Amino acid sequence: MIEPRELLGLIPNGLYLVGVRTETAKFIYTGSWLTQASFEPCLSATAVRRTHEGHEKIKESGAFTVSFLGKGQLELARVGFGNPEDRFEGLDWKNCPETGAPVVNDALGYIGCRVAHWVECGDHDIVIAEAVIAEKFREGELLNIHDTPWTYS
What's the CA gap between 153 and 5, in Å, rounded? Predict the structure, then answer.
């Protein structure tokens, strides 16, 4: 027998920059657990660690963006792991017109989401959100965690 994480690590998770804006701050972080959850309404589900700063900020704002990173954008993915005060330095970004959350202009595109449900489970919460806006900036393949030296399982 093996540890379940060994097989769960084979799941081809994409890499994204998740943006959040509260009344007092903007925040961006690298996320990898995202899936479509419903066609109608158009829902996505993402997992956010309860101890992560993004969890608190999404709960406060009730909205977020997901900027989809393309293959070859590993350095852009690293932005979301840096010092929170420096993450926007040199980053080409704009505010989502629907949520106000940051969007990365160099990404493949983004979805703007409004939180519909929270599901508490384990050390992460599942955030189910309605995609209320989407914009595609360019063609390309999604950056996958297997394209990086990282693991998250």
Answer: 6
In the numeric block, which tokens belong to residue 94? Answer: 């704009």
Contact 118, 125 (CB under 8 A): yes
- The whole-angstrom separation of Cα 131 and Cα 40 is 10
pLDDT in tens, 52-87: 999 999 999 999 999 999 999 999 999 999 898 899
Q: What is the mean pLDDT of residues 94-98?
A: 98
In the chain, the amino acid numbered 125 is D
DSSP per-residue string spanning 83-147: -TTTTTTT--EEE-TTT--EEETTSSEEEEEEEEEEEEETTEEEEEEEEEEEEE----PBPBGGG
Residue in the structure block whose two tokens are 């900036």: 137
State the DSSP H helix or E strand holding residue 17, giving kind and residue range, or none if neither: strand 16-21
Question: What pLDDT shows up at residue 42?
Answer: 98
Give me the pLDDT at residue 152, please: 74
Does the pLDDT at position 153 exceed 70?
no
Asked if residues 119 and 99 have their Cβ atoms less than 8 Å apart, the reply is: no
